[in-house]
């Protein structure tokens, strides 16, 4: 059995509930969260959005390729999925789009914007104005 940090990680990795590797999921998710937050705090403020997207894509690839050596297979898979989603979120303003649609569906009662959402246009640019007009009409009860 390994000692120190490696021993603690091995003990966490071995935790299972009903055969589900909860420990590896915790290590994978926690590792992804720490890496994403460090990247957002230290690297993101210095790069344009698209460039930070490439940095995050690189982190995702590294986790996919070599993460199993540190976190185990399921832990690395969890970390890769989390980092992949964070990469997509950085490049494509999904949260802002969803908030915009919810605001339209609820009659303008939108949740308080987060700092991430404030950086993006409130309306998706790949949706035609006719589609937005149709959505507005449907929400207003006219369609």
Tell me the radius of gyration.
20 Å
Low-confidence stretches: none
Number of strands: 0
Give the overall pLDDT as a whole number.
Answer: 79
Q: Which secondary-structure class do the elements indicate?
A: mainly alpha
Give the number of domains.
2
First-to-last CA distance: 66 Å
Strand content: under 5%
In one word, what is the shape?
elongated
Helix content: 55-70%
Helices, by number, come to: 8
- Main pleated-sheet profile: none
Topology pattern, helix = H, strand = E:
HHHHHHHH
Structural commentary:
The chain is an all-alpha fold. The protein folds into 2 domains: 4-92, no CATH class; 95-139, no CATH class. Helices cover 70% and strands 0% of the residues. It is built from 8 helices and no strands. α1 (4-13) packs across α2 (22-43), α2 runs parallel beside α5 and α3 runs antiparallel to α5. The chain is elongated, with a radius of gyration of 20 Å.
């Amino acid at each position: 059995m390994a000692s120190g940090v490696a021993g603690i990680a091995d003990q966490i990795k071995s935790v299972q509930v009903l055969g589900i590797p909860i420990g590896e999921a915790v290590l994978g998710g926690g590792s992804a969260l720490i890496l994403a937050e460090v990247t957002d705090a230290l690297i993101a403020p210095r790069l344009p959005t698209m460039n930070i997207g490439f940095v995050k894509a690189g982190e995702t690839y590294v986790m996919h390729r070599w993460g199993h050596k540190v976190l185990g297979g399921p832990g690395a898979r969890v970390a890769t999925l989390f980092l992949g989603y964070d990469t997509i979120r950085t490049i494509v303003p999904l949260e802002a789009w969803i908030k915009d649609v919810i605001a339209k569906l609820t009659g303008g009662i939108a949740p308080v914007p987060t700092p991430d959402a404030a950086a993006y246009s409130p309306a998706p640019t790949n949706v035609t104005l006719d589609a937005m007009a149709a959505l507005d009409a449907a929400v207003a009860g006219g369609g």
